[in-house]
User: Fold YahG/YlbE-like protein from Amycolatopsis viridis.
Amino acid sequence: MSAHQSEQVDRANARALRLLYDAEPVLVDVRPAIEVIPGMTKDTVLTSGPPLHWDAYTGGQRTAILGGVLHEGLASSTAEAERLLSREAVRVAGCHDFGAVGSLAGVTTASMPVLVVEDAGSGNRGYCTLFEGAAPARLNYGVYDASVQQNLEYLASVIGPALGAAVRLLDGGIPLRPIMARALRQGDELHSRNTAASALFLQEILPGLFDLGADLAREVVAYLTSGDYFFLRPSMAAAKAMADRMYGAEGSSVVTAMAFSCAEFGIRVAGLGPRWFRGPLPEVEHARFFPGHDLGDMEIMGGESLITEVCGLGAFAQAAAFTLQNYQGKPEVMVRRNLEMYRITAGEHEVFKIPFLEYRGTPAGIDVRKVVATGVTPALDVGIAGKGGGQIGAGSFRAPLQPFADACAALDQLN
Amino acid sequence: MSAHQSEQVDRANARALRLLYDAEPVLVDVRPAIEVIPGMTKDTVLTSGPPLHWDAYTGGQRTAILGGVLHEGLASSTAEAERLLSREAVRVAGCHDFGAVGSLAGVTTASMPVLVVEDAGSGNRGYCTLFEGAAPARLNYGVYDASVQQNLEYLASVIGPALGAAVRLLDGGIPLRPIMARALRQGDELHSRNTAASALFLQEILPGLFDLGADLAREVVAYLTSGDYFFLRPSMAAAKAMADRMYGAEGSSVVTAMAFSCAEFGIRVAGLGPRWFRGPLPEVEHARFFPGHDLGDMEIMGGESLITEVCGLGAFAQAAAFTLQNYQGKPEVMVRRNLEMYRITAGEHEVFKIPFLEYRGTPAGIDVRKVVATGVTPALDVGIAGKGGGQIGAGSFRAPLQPFADACAALDQLN
Assistant:
């Protein structure tokens, strides 16, 4: 790339960052996926990562996809679900191609309530399913059984409709960016820690909840305050709506998506459209496993919550969340890792700031050129699933270099 | 003091710390002061600091005491209130002598609703009035006018009774220590910053609020979420109930109270009972003033929120609250100041911990001997009042050495 071309990319990246910084994600509704996600059908199952052929999904992600088919009542047995998927009577597709993002396996089906987050300026929408609650057995962690099915039905019949009704009662919905900016001042990094943001969200939705009546309101509050993890999903949907704005910056080398399936990690780049650049799975840099588990029990079953890192959150804001030290390393390690991310980003976020770094903006806008030049790949704050399903820990991972190198080469060819 | 005597004091301090660490403050009620504070009468005005003769109260603290007399309807004019106070028809007394603690001027009168915090083990009770809300004109900041009076009436007629009813509906009240421990992980130090704790408190009281009906519940939520400062008062009352346990440790050199009036700073020590050791007012170490104000506008009008520092909070937990950097100095300064406090404390808190310091317990139990030996006096996170009333800033102050030296000498005489 010539100096002239390089300057052009710099300018495009500045445009991408401006789009990112000016995003104003607002939770406007909670509705069944089929009612709000364009292109969604009864016989579609969305899942995490650069899409694969059905045969390539294994382990927990495969279990979750099959569970999605059963949950929708498209099949009455796993064997039947397998047959429908094999002959493509049920379609498996990537969340990102539908404006959605999935947590872990990320299975999203027609009847599941999704958070609808709209960017005020662009009208972009990001969708994400609801936190399944504190129960250890969850579809997104690769488990499908009677308790998971019952919980999904509860979310669809009680929690989703109540949240939707409350949000619609609040004029203009719930602006999420102020919650996110505040949560960074209260120890969240909005990927592996969402404790403060969940509490702030509760405060915002509360006036709407009161109108639903005491019993239902109490039930929704119990759901929202269980597990301190509710806000991860609004954070993800908001990040999707924000990140997608950057596709408007033609020629930019800034990353617009990172995601993985059970088999591959992939990125998208603003100047290269919806094309996935694929590579091997991320590797563990530092992790902690729940009692009775170790690295040998780990199974990667997909994940798209890395959309938060794309927006300067998660591992890019680790120094805001020292309570994660057991999972990610001592505070000094977290600070060092956070500072390292400035080496591979095009800017510093104007709204998301880190108190410990004297309110320096988070490193924002991963530049594939800088990743290749430094050999430093993005750090990723992720939850860890176990073989056989369920969460067994959490940690800080590293993305592979290959997709960034390939994207860089593709950008070179473009110029 | 001989080596033998010194060891005896060490053992007494260990007992004091055990009492402190094992405290379990619970908000059990919110009631008018006269109904719950032993010894309170219609014609008593409690105020901050080692008590002075009425003549000695000046400026905002004097204004607030007069305001208290008017608010209670004991006089119909300021002149009449002055007369009643001069001939002691209305009694002025120190909050601490009634189990109470006051914010800034700390005026507490018979009809004012107070938080009733009870220590589960000892039955000790700590009392504190309610946060007056986000309005700039507040009695505790030395202002008394029609708007202040109206707000006090609103607190007494609507907010206090509603909070009391909600707390009583919750079986066993609201345990405050878990909220405080969690808030330290969310960027609060529970003196100058109470944002997270206020949100956590809201979550705990919510089930009780729902039973009050939607309209009243909505009103209480609006109050609880205005200004992010509600929880300072529960924090103070809890600290009072916790600190008072330490009087049980005979011979201990650990501080059980720090407080100041408009004229004097004072401390109490576990082994020396209710006697105040008095000295000059604290001095500003680092402060920030709101636009249009500077150090020359500052007026000290009392304050007992330093009871939080007595319990290892506030300035003793600055490294938990980097968002206060504008008021207290850069993060590295805050960390250094926080670490310095370990030089003058007898222990490290077993429950209150600081994530950035790798979950080290906060420095707890100020040992007057160590203060004298090092010349390091306690740092204090305080709000700053302006001449003529109202808040004009906040900062980190330093206690004077004299009272610690005097207490140390008194302990020596005891031994």
About this structure: Chain A has two domains: 17-235, 253-414. The domain at 17-235 of chain A is CATH 3.90.1710.10 (Enterococcus faecalis V583 fold).
